[in-house]
Amino acid sequence: MCGIVGYVGRGNALEPVLSGLKNLEYRGYDSAGVAFCSNDMFHSVKQVGRVDALEAELAGLRQTKPNLAIGHTRWATHGAPTKLNAHPHFNGAKTIFVVHNGIIENHNEIRQMLQANGYNFISHTDTEVVPHLIDYFYAKFNDMDKAFETAIRELKGAYAIVMTTKYEPNKIYAAKLSSPLVIGIGADNNMVGSDASAVADAANKIVYLEDYEIAIVERKSYAIKNIQKKQPVTRQPEDIILEDI
């Protein structure tokens, strides 16, 4: 079990992401990491241990005040609790960053296909296949929305996946199957998270994603699609109430 949080909007995205990760430490505290965009540059910082250790590691970067960030706190399943295995995971060019809760059951099959196509892996996690697979389809389509959806369709198992990418620096991509994932709606920002506690510090409404749904989340909007039914989804946000947290 792992915890996921992401933020896109005005202000310093690292603050609500770190706050959300602290609220999610009940889901895992072996390691933690973030990826964020600042001045069109992407950074990824990981640390073994609790979120406090990650926060200390970020001390020199928090003044960059990125408008988008994703984060993860991990309970190790595939791969030991090390910096190398910590999330976010990324493609070879470090242009696609992914955090994941769940298990990709067909990760060995996907890894072998990608290795046959020249992809190299640096961790022992099932998650690392995801950014490489998205990269593989992006090279085919030159369309990140299509690449993300196509890659998600290839995955078997359970997942809550959140991605950010240099190619679409103002979007957070999300997907859910058998692992919890929500969208948090704020005044001038939107969030994603494993539960209401991950988004409550910067959002006042919430949308619960359902299985086989993907979402593209921007500062002032979000779009949900059911990839099994191949159709868009409209779902009204609910108020975040204390019982959710």
Folded structure, characterized:
By secondary structure, the protein is of the alpha+beta class. Helix content is 22%, strand content 36%. It has six helices and 15 strands. The protein has helices spanning 14-23, 51-57, 107-116, 129-141, 144-154, 196-199, and strands at 3-9, 31-38, 41-48, 68-74, 89-90, 96-104, 157-165, 168-177, 182-185, 189-193, 205-208, 213-217, 222-226, 231-233, 238-239. The strands form two sheets. The chain has an eight-stranded antiparallel β-sheet with strand order 3-2-4-1-10-9-11-15. The chain has a seven-stranded antiparallel β-sheet with strand order 5-6-7-8-12-13-14. A hairpin with a 4-residue loop joins strand 12 (213-217) and strand 13. Helix 3 (107-116) packs across helix 4 (129-141) and helix 4 crosses helix 5 (144-154). The longest helix is centred in the middle third of the chain and has 13 residues, at 129-141. It is globular and about 45 Å long. It starts with a strand and ends in a 6-residue tail after the last strand. The mean pLDDT is 90.
Q: In DSSP terms, counting alpha (H) and pi (I) runs of 4 or more, how many helices? A: 6
SSE order, one letter for each helix or strand: EHEEHEEEHHHEEEEHEEEEE
Biggest sheet descriptor: 8 strands, antiparallel
Radius of gyration: 16 Å
Strand content: 35-45%
Q: How much helix, percentage-wise, in residues?
A: 10-25%
Distance between the termini: 18 Å
Tell the overall outline. globular
Strand segment tally? 15
Structural category: alpha+beta
Model regions low in confidence, pLDDT < 50 over at least 5 residues: none
Mean pLDDT: 90
Please state how the strands of the largest beta sheet are arranged side by side.
3-2-4-1-10-9-11-15
